[in-house]
Amino acid sequence: MSDLYTGKGDKGMTTFFGSAEQYPKSALRVESLGVLDELNSFLGFCKVKAAHVQHPVLHMSMKEVLEQVQHDLFTAQAEIGGAGERLTEEKVTWLEAQIAVIEKELPPITTFFLAGGTELAALLDVARTIARRAERRLVSFRHDAAMIGAEKGRPSGYTIAYLNRLSSLLYACARLVNHLAGEKEPAPTYT
What is the full DSSP assignment across the chain? Predict the structure, then answer.
Protein backbone atom coordinates (compact mmCIF):
# COMPACT_ATOMS: atom_id res chain seq x y z
CA MET A 1 0.00 0.00 0.00
CA SER A 2 1.10 3.56 -0.63
CA ASP A 3 0.45 6.95 0.94
CA LEU A 4 -0.34 8.22 -2.57
CA TYR A 5 -2.95 5.64 -3.59
CA THR A 6 -5.22 3.03 -2.06
CA GLY A 7 -6.58 1.30 -5.15
CA LYS A 8 -10.10 1.50 -3.67
CA GLY A 9 -11.35 3.60 -6.59
CA ASP A 10 -10.05 1.30 -9.33
CA LYS A 11 -13.58 0.19 -10.20
CA GLY A 12 -14.89 3.72 -10.67
CA MET A 13 -16.46 4.07 -7.22
CA THR A 14 -15.59 6.22 -4.21
CA THR A 15 -16.76 7.00 -0.68
CA PHE A 16 -17.06 10.20 1.37
CA PHE A 17 -16.16 11.26 4.93
CA GLY A 18 -17.36 8.79 7.53
CA SER A 19 -19.46 6.73 5.12
CA ALA A 20 -19.05 3.31 3.61
CA GLU A 21 -21.65 4.12 0.93
CA GLN A 22 -20.20 3.82 -2.57
CA TYR A 23 -20.76 6.50 -5.24
CA PRO A 24 -19.86 6.28 -8.92
CA LYS A 25 -17.10 8.71 -9.83
CA SER A 26 -19.44 10.13 -12.48
CA ALA A 27 -21.96 11.29 -9.82
CA LEU A 28 -22.65 15.04 -9.59
CA ARG A 29 -21.33 15.09 -6.03
CA VAL A 30 -18.01 13.63 -7.15
CA GLU A 31 -17.92 15.90 -10.20
CA SER A 32 -18.54 18.89 -7.90
CA LEU A 33 -15.57 17.90 -5.75
CA GLY A 34 -13.44 17.39 -8.83
CA VAL A 35 -14.10 20.79 -10.34
CA LEU A 36 -13.46 22.48 -6.97
CA ASP A 37 -10.14 20.64 -6.82
CA GLU A 38 -9.35 21.72 -10.39
CA LEU A 39 -10.15 25.34 -9.55
CA ASN A 40 -8.07 25.22 -6.38
CA SER A 41 -5.10 23.77 -8.28
CA PHE A 42 -5.36 26.37 -11.05
CA LEU A 43 -5.53 29.14 -8.45
CA GLY A 44 -2.25 27.77 -7.11
CA PHE A 45 -0.74 28.43 -10.55
CA CYS A 46 -2.24 31.95 -10.57
CA LYS A 47 -0.91 32.54 -7.05
CA VAL A 48 2.65 31.72 -8.14
CA LYS A 49 2.33 34.14 -11.06
CA ALA A 50 0.78 36.81 -8.78
CA ALA A 51 3.72 36.87 -6.35
CA HIS A 52 4.94 40.13 -7.88
CA VAL A 53 1.58 41.96 -7.70
CA GLN A 54 1.66 44.40 -4.80
CA HIS A 55 -0.89 47.15 -4.68
CA PRO A 56 -1.86 49.06 -1.55
CA VAL A 57 -5.54 49.10 -2.51
CA LEU A 58 -5.84 45.35 -1.90
CA HIS A 59 -4.77 45.69 1.77
CA MET A 60 -3.05 42.37 1.13
CA SER A 61 -1.11 41.01 -1.82
CA MET A 62 -2.96 39.33 -4.66
CA LYS A 63 -1.07 36.17 -3.71
CA GLU A 64 -2.57 36.38 -0.21
CA VAL A 65 -6.06 36.97 -1.62
CA LEU A 66 -5.77 33.92 -3.86
CA GLU A 67 -4.39 31.80 -1.04
CA GLN A 68 -7.34 32.74 1.18
CA VAL A 69 -9.65 31.66 -1.63
CA GLN A 70 -7.81 28.33 -1.81
CA HIS A 71 -8.44 27.79 1.91
CA ASP A 72 -12.12 28.63 1.39
CA LEU A 73 -12.36 26.18 -1.50
CA PHE A 74 -11.05 23.43 0.77
CA THR A 75 -13.90 24.30 3.13
CA ALA A 76 -16.35 23.96 0.24
CA GLN A 77 -14.82 20.60 -0.67
CA ALA A 78 -15.16 19.42 2.93
CA GLU A 79 -18.82 20.50 2.86
CA ILE A 80 -19.52 18.56 -0.34
CA GLY A 81 -17.58 15.61 1.01
CA GLY A 82 -19.87 15.44 4.04
CA ALA A 83 -17.67 16.92 6.77
CA GLY A 84 -19.06 19.51 9.15
CA GLU A 85 -17.30 22.53 7.62
CA ARG A 86 -19.37 25.17 5.82
CA LEU A 87 -18.71 28.42 4.04
CA THR A 88 -20.41 31.30 5.83
CA GLU A 89 -22.00 34.60 4.94
CA GLU A 90 -18.83 36.28 6.23
CA LYS A 91 -16.81 34.56 3.51
CA VAL A 92 -19.18 35.88 0.84
CA THR A 93 -18.96 39.36 2.40
CA TRP A 94 -15.15 39.15 2.38
CA LEU A 95 -15.19 38.48 -1.38
CA GLU A 96 -17.56 41.40 -1.90
CA ALA A 97 -15.23 43.67 0.07
CA GLN A 98 -12.24 42.63 -2.07
CA ILE A 99 -14.23 43.26 -5.25
CA ALA A 100 -15.37 46.71 -4.03
CA VAL A 101 -11.81 47.77 -3.22
CA ILE A 102 -10.51 46.66 -6.63
CA GLU A 103 -13.47 48.14 -8.50
CA LYS A 104 -12.68 51.63 -7.18
CA GLU A 105 -9.33 51.48 -9.00
CA LEU A 106 -10.74 50.50 -12.39
CA PRO A 107 -12.52 52.33 -15.17
CA PRO A 108 -16.23 51.48 -15.35
CA ILE A 109 -17.34 48.51 -17.44
CA THR A 110 -19.12 49.62 -20.60
CA THR A 111 -18.72 46.48 -22.70
CA PHE A 112 -17.45 42.91 -22.65
CA PHE A 113 -13.67 42.56 -22.97
CA LEU A 114 -11.46 40.06 -24.75
CA ALA A 115 -9.48 37.94 -22.31
CA GLY A 116 -5.75 38.45 -22.39
CA GLY A 117 -3.42 41.32 -21.79
CA THR A 118 -0.81 40.15 -19.33
CA GLU A 119 -0.11 36.49 -18.72
CA LEU A 120 -1.49 36.69 -15.18
CA ALA A 121 -4.70 38.40 -16.34
CA ALA A 122 -5.22 35.66 -18.92
CA LEU A 123 -4.68 32.99 -16.25
CA LEU A 124 -7.13 34.71 -13.92
CA ASP A 125 -9.69 34.75 -16.74
CA VAL A 126 -9.26 30.98 -17.13
CA ALA A 127 -9.68 30.60 -13.35
CA ARG A 128 -12.87 32.69 -13.61
CA THR A 129 -14.33 30.28 -16.17
CA ILE A 130 -13.42 27.28 -13.99
CA ALA A 131 -15.13 29.00 -11.06
CA ARG A 132 -18.26 29.44 -13.21
CA ARG A 133 -18.16 25.75 -14.13
CA ALA A 134 -17.78 24.83 -10.45
CA GLU A 135 -20.79 27.00 -9.66
CA ARG A 136 -22.87 25.26 -12.34
CA ARG A 137 -21.86 21.80 -11.07
CA LEU A 138 -22.67 22.67 -7.48
CA VAL A 139 -26.02 24.20 -8.46
CA SER A 140 -26.85 21.00 -10.38
CA PHE A 141 -25.83 18.84 -7.44
CA ARG A 142 -27.78 21.02 -4.98
CA HIS A 143 -30.88 20.83 -7.19
CA ASP A 144 -30.67 17.07 -7.68
CA ALA A 145 -30.03 16.47 -3.97
CA ALA A 146 -33.07 18.59 -3.09
CA MET A 147 -35.23 16.65 -5.58
CA ILE A 148 -34.47 13.35 -3.85
CA GLY A 149 -34.38 14.74 -0.31
CA ALA A 150 -30.66 14.10 0.18
CA GLU A 151 -28.93 16.42 2.63
CA LYS A 152 -25.49 14.82 3.00
CA GLY A 153 -22.93 16.94 1.15
CA ARG A 154 -25.55 19.24 -0.32
CA PRO A 155 -23.95 22.69 -0.78
CA SER A 156 -25.41 25.55 1.22
CA GLY A 157 -26.71 28.74 -0.32
CA TYR A 158 -23.60 30.51 0.98
CA THR A 159 -21.37 28.09 -0.91
CA ILE A 160 -23.25 28.78 -4.14
CA ALA A 161 -23.12 32.54 -3.48
CA TYR A 162 -19.39 32.27 -2.71
CA LEU A 163 -18.67 30.68 -6.07
CA ASN A 164 -20.78 33.29 -7.83
CA ARG A 165 -18.83 36.11 -6.15
CA LEU A 166 -15.53 34.31 -6.69
CA SER A 167 -15.88 34.51 -10.46
CA SER A 168 -16.50 38.25 -10.07
CA LEU A 169 -13.41 38.61 -7.88
CA LEU A 170 -11.28 36.77 -10.41
CA TYR A 171 -12.61 39.02 -13.18
CA ALA A 172 -11.80 42.09 -11.07
CA CYS A 173 -8.31 40.76 -10.37
CA ALA A 174 -7.69 40.14 -14.08
CA ARG A 175 -8.81 43.69 -14.88
CA LEU A 176 -6.64 45.10 -12.07
CA VAL A 177 -3.55 43.25 -13.28
CA ASN A 178 -4.04 44.60 -16.79
CA HIS A 179 -4.77 48.10 -15.46
CA LEU A 180 -1.58 48.13 -13.38
CA ALA A 181 0.40 46.99 -16.43
CA GLY A 182 -1.16 49.66 -18.64
CA GLU A 183 -2.83 47.05 -20.85
CA LYS A 184 -5.91 48.14 -22.77
CA GLU A 185 -9.09 46.10 -22.49
CA PRO A 186 -10.18 45.49 -26.08
CA ALA A 187 -13.88 45.02 -26.73
CA PRO A 188 -15.10 42.29 -29.07
CA THR A 189 -15.85 43.53 -32.59
CA TYR A 190 -18.67 41.07 -33.30
CA THR A 191 -17.59 40.75 -36.92
Answer: --SS--STTTTSEE--TT----EETTSHHHHHHHHHHHHHHHHHHHHHHGGG---GGGSS-HHHHHHHHHHHHHHHHHHHHT-S----HHHHHHHHHHHHHHHTTSPPP-S---S-SSHHHHHHHHHHHHHHHHHHHHHHHHHHHHHHT--TTPPPHHHHHHHHHHHHHHHHHHHHHHHHHT---PPP---
pLDDT digits (tens, 9 = 90+) for 5-22: 777 666 676 666 666 676
Q: Say if 149 falls within a structural domain.
A: yes
- With a pLDDT cut of 90, the percent of the chain lying above it is 64
Q: Can you give the CATH number for the domain in which 146 is found?
A: 1.20.1200.10
Quick one: which of 87, 67, 65 has its CA closest to 75?
87
Tens of pLDDT along 92-147?
A: 999 999 999 999 999 888 888 989 999 999 999 999 999 999 999 999 999 988 87
